[in-house]
Each structure stands twice: as structure tokens, then as C-alpha cells.
Design a protein that fits this description.
two-stranded antiparallel ribbon, Ribosomal Protein L30, Chain: A, 137 residues, globular, alpha+beta, five-stranded mixed β-sheet
Length: 137
């Protein structure tokens, strides 16, 4: 097993309509403020609790190194020199979110109102999030 802690890719799929205040604050803390934005977060119990809180608006799963590298190459935006909010990867500073395109081929037969286990798009995808990310890059 790897010594490095796994990272989770979180993608926002639904907008602000009907959004409760505590869920909006959770999405803000996860750095996914708009639809089709993605953030990479560490796998920790605190973050998993936040994901479960916002499960009706996001999908997530474990990102592999190849997909993360592709995401940084294609969609990584350099952070401003004086900015406070950035992610450092290999000596370069990036914004803590990625702007993605809508998924080619759609999000599932039941769309953004059903969970991934019920042929929808929301919730935990485990390792299958990599396939979705590649379709959205």
C-alpha cells in the first residue's frame, strides 16, 4: 500500500436553487462554488463528513495520478503571486479548483437528481470518478 494518503476529486453538478445555508457553506469550504468545478481534497474523516453533507449537489471519488496529471496540464490555472488560496504541486502554485466542461455523453440515465448507485450522477463514485473527469476535461 502507498505511504501517501489518497486524494478525492469533488465535482459540483447542481446549482444554487433550493440550497440551504449550511450546505452552501460546506461547498464554499470545499472550493467548489460553481457547477462543473472540481476540487482535489485529502481523504480525511472531516472531509468525508463534508462530502456526505453536500451529497445532493456533488459527486466524488478517488483520483488516480494519471488523471490528476492530465487535470493539472489541461485545466490547472496558475495562482496569483500574492494570493493566499492556492495549491502547490511540483513547485508550481495553482488555483484550488478546476473549471471543467459538461460531461461528454451525459451524466447518467437519471441525471443529476439521482445517486450514482441508482443510474444517476450524484454521490460516491469510488474509482469511477476518473472516467467522468476524463470526459469533462
Amino acid at each position: 500500500m502507498e505511504n501517501q494518503r489518497k486524494q478525492i476529486a469533488v465535482i459540483r453538478l447542481r446549482g444554487r436553487t433550493g440550497l440551504q445555508g449550511d450546505v452552501a457553506a460546506t461547498l464554499h469550504m470545499l472550493n467548489i462554488r460553481r457547477v462543473n468545478h472540481c476540487a482535489i481534497v485529502p481523504d480525511s474523516p472531516d472531509v468525508v463528513g463534508m462530502l456526505k453533507k453536500a451529497k445532493d449537489y456533488i459527486t466524488w471519488g478517488y483520483v488516480d495520478s494519471d488523471t490528476l496529471k492530465l487535470l493539472l496540464e489541461k485545466r490547472g490555472e496558475p495562482a496569483l503571486a500574492g494570493g493566499r488560496n492556492f495549491v502547490a504541486v511540483n513547485g508550481k502554485n495553482y488555483k484550488p479548483y478546476f473549471r471543467l466542461s459538461p460531461a461528454k455523453g451525459g451524466l447518467g440515465s437519471r441525471g443529476v437528481k439521482a445517486s450514482f448507485t441508482n443510474a444517476g450522477a450524484l454521490g460516491d463514485r469510488k474509482d469511477k470518478v476518473n472516467e467522468l473527469l476524463r470526459r469533462m476535461i
